[in-house]
Design brief:
Layout (H helix, E strand, L loop, with lengths): L1 H20 L1 H30 L24 E6 H11 L5 E6 L11 H6 L1 H10 L16 E5 L4 H17 L1 H5 L3 E4 L4 E5 L2 E5 L2 H9 L6 E4 L8 H9 L6 E3 L5 H12 L3 H11 L8
Parallel strand pairs: 1-2, 1-3, 3-4
Antiparallel strand pairs: 4-8, 5-6, 5-7
Helix pairs in contact: 3-9
């Protein structure tokens, strides 16, 4: 404690001397502090106003949500899919008793850079929050969660990966209890359908495709799926939605501080840290061309 006190004293005296000698710098620092304080007050006022007015209260479930029949949250699943095409196939192929479908149009807002009032003004996010039933921020209530499996099912391409990242940012920043409770999953749809006569195989990676083709004699028809919308309802059920055969990855955060740092770098306002991260990890990237 004595060392810390000495450091604080020396730093304080040095800073005071510097500011007296550099009044212009002192004014610039004070102005930045005042601006930051005003921004925090404005953000808090906007959030309090949204929650006080009950922006999510009394609203019916979104029309685009195809809800499931069960009201037992432990049995219910919500599939968040990309676009109306995937939404149509998944609505037809699902188990209506336990599986709900919410198609999202386009890419959602990057919540890392946005105030809560702006977030809830974004239609697709508002629909998702209403569908979950928990509300958000200070009014969040885990006991009102309507589905105990929330499954992000986006296409296996660059756009799908971007949408998935935006959704993960939303859940990480505003619904951390859903991640901690093990409620959030990522679906793993197949990349290839391999057909030889009446024999059908699905491959979930290029390595899987190579293994399957090695075990098939003669020529086989190989179909590359560009998105979930290319699958018919039966294929989507067999590969991505059937609990007995599907592959789901549960979202977990083992290192909270590291995860927080990565989200800030990749989704925040600062360009330079993101540029450095990309340059450092470029060799590990997988290109979708």
């Amino acid at each position: 404690m004595e060392v810390r006190g000495a450091v604080e004293t020396i730093f304080g005296e040095s800073l005071a001397a510097y500011l007296e000698e550099k009044p212009d710098d002192a004014r610039a620092i004070i102005n930045k502090v005042v601006l930051a304080l005003e921004a925090r007050k404005a953000a808090k006022a906007a959030k309090d106003s949204v929650l006080r007015k009950g922006a999510l209260e009394g609203l019916t479930l979104p029309g685009k949500l195809a809800d499931c029949q069960t009201r037992e949250a432990a049995q219910a699943e919500l599939f968040i899919v990309e676009g109306d095409s995937a939404g149509g196939s998944s609505k037809q192929g699902r188990d209506r008793r336990t599986q709900a479908i919410l198609p999202l149009k386009g890419k959602i807002l990057n919540v890392e850079k946005t105030r809560l009032d702006k977030i809830l003004a974004f239609k697709e996010i508002k629909s998702l929050v209403i569908a979950l039933g928990t509300s958000i921020s200070d009014t969040f209530n885990l006991e009102k969660l309507r589905y105990h499996k929330i499954i992000i099912a986006t296409d296996a391409d660059v756009d799908g990966a971007h949408i998935r990242t935006l959704l993960l940012t939303l859940f990480y920043r505003y619904f951390p209890s859903l991640i901690a409770g093990g409620y959030l999953y990522i679906a793993q749809p197949p990349l290839y359908k391999i057909k030889k006569s009446k024999e059908i195989h699905y491959a979930y990676s290029d390595e899987d495709k190579t293994k399957v083709l090695k075990n098939i004699s003669g020529e086989a028809n190989v179909q590359r799926y560009k998105g979930l919308g290319e699958m018919n309802p039966e294929e989507l059920w067999e590969t991505t939605m059937d609990p007995a055969r599907r592959i789901l990855k549960q979202v977990k955060v083992a290192e909270t501080e590291e995860a927080n740092k990565i989200f800030t770098i990749l989704m925040g306002d600062e360009v330079e840290p993101r540029k450095i991260f990309i340059q450092t990890h470029a060799k590990l990237a997988t290109l979708d061309v």
